[in-house]
């Protein structure tokens, strides 16, 4: 079945062109152009629960609509379903293409402040969700899980990877003693992937967000930390600029949440970087190819660069 056939399960407009969209490492994503409109077509991984995706969508779409935040609004098939299942049992979904400003780093202090405000609006909306979120990635931001996986790989009797590096493994050993702690309980709902490419800006303001598949329970500081991480270039970030993002967030949250941010942000910033570095390194030495569009050598260098950020950011505290 062609991509055009799948599109025709959602609408009857004549498809003019279908091109891959570069955003996203996990799902296969395409932009579909018709005479009437542009849409995004996305193939979902087979191991993702469609029932959980739809359950979460029902919960977050209601509160985001009330807050006036823009997000991908799924289009139903002619059969009344949010997903089309192809002959290989892959699920496909579609939503209208969202027009927004193209944003690149470095961001101005004003944009960073708006970034923080947008995150606060998102978290404020999430506080009004009535019901339990069903996480799609059960080990997302689970530092203990990734460290256990890493330990199993490096102690395995299987053929050793040529991409292993003692310097990286030495850093992982030191950082694991600092940042791996007993599980923390959090009642907050977070986006869990608030990198810059998932933020929708228009005229200098955040108008919405993309990719809610990662929604889960966790500390709000993880979302703020991930936002800061995505703005860092070459391991460096100006403290005043980072403070602008944090100030924007605090301007729209209550006193208790502001205290949580002040007390936990940099610890969680280092944790999220440590997690990502381990994921890249695990991918490089195991050959799992989770980050499918990158070579192992790149993944090792990426892990090293992220680990360096943890050291560089220490002066921000």
Description:
With 317 residues, the protein is an alpha+beta fold. The chain has 9 helices and 9 strands. It has a 5-stranded antiparallel sheet. The protein has a two-stranded antiparallel ribbon with strand order 6-9. A hairpin with a 5-residue loop joins β4 and β5. 33% of the residues are buried. The mean pLDDT is 91.
Q: Helices, strands, pairings?
A:
Blueprint: H1 3-7, E1 15-20, E2 28-34, E3 38-44, H2 50-67, E4 84-85, E5 91-96, H3 109-126, H4 143-154, H5 166-179, E6 189-190, E7 199-202, E8 205-209, E9 216-217, H6 220-231, H7 239-250, H8 255-286, H9 296-312
Antiparallel strand pairs: 1-2, 2-3, 3-5, 4-5, 6-9, 7-8
Helix pairs in contact: 2-3, 3-6, 3-7, 4-8, 5-8, 6-8, 8-9
Task: Output the helix-strand order.
Answer: HEEEHEEHHHEEEEHHHH
User: Distance between the terminal alpha carbons, to the nearest Å?
Assistant: 54 Å
- What portion of residues is helical? 40-55%
Strand sequence of the main sheet, in spatial order? 1-2-3-5-4
Shape: globular
Please tally the helical runs, counting DSSP H or I stretches of 4 or more residues: 9
Main sheet properties: 5 strands, antiparallel
- What is the alpha-carbon Rg in Å? 20 Å
Features:
single chain; 317 residues; alpha+beta; five-stranded antiparallel sheet; two-stranded antiparallel ribbon; 44% helix; 13% strand; globular
């Amino acid at each position: 079945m062609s991509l055009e056939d799948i599109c025709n399960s959602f609408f009857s407009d004549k498809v003019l062109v279908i091109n891959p969209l570069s955003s996203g490492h996990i799902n296969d994503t395409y932009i579909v152009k018709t005479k009437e409109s542009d849409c995004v077509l996305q193939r979902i991984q087979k191991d993702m629960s469609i029932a959980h995706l739809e359950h979460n969508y029902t919960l977050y779409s209601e509160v985001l609509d009330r807050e006036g935040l823009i997000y991908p609004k799924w289009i139903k098939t002619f059969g009344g379903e949010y997903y089309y299942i192809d002959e290989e049992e892959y699920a496909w979904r579609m939503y209208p293409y969202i027009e927004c400003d193209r944003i690149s780093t470095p961001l101005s202090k004003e944009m960073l402040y708006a970034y923080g405000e947008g995150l606060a609006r998102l978290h404020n909306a999430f506080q009004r969700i009535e019901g339990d979120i069903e996480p799609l990635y059960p080990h997302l931001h689970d530092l203990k899980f990734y460290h256990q996986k890493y330990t199993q790989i490096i102690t395995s009797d299987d053929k050793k990877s040529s991409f292993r590096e003692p310097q990286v493994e030495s850093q992982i050993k030191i950082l694991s003693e600092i940042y791996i702690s007993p599980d923390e309980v959090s009642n907050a709902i977070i986006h869990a992937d608030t990198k810059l490419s998932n933020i929708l800006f228009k005229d200098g303001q955040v108008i919405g967000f993309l990719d809610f598949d990662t929604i889960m329970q966790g500390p709000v500081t993880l979302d703020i930390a991930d936002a800061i991480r995505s703005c860092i270039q070459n391991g460096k970030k100006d403290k005043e600029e980072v403070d602008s993002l944090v100030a924007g967030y605090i301007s729209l949250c209550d006193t208790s949440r502001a205290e949580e941010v002040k007390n936990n942000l940099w610890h969680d910033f280092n944790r999220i970087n440590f997690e990502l570095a381990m994921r890249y390194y695990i991918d490089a030495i195991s050959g799992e190819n989770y980050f499918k569009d990158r070579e192992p050598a790149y993944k090792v260098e990426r892990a090293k660069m992220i680990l360096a950020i943890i050291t560089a950011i220490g002066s921000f505290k």
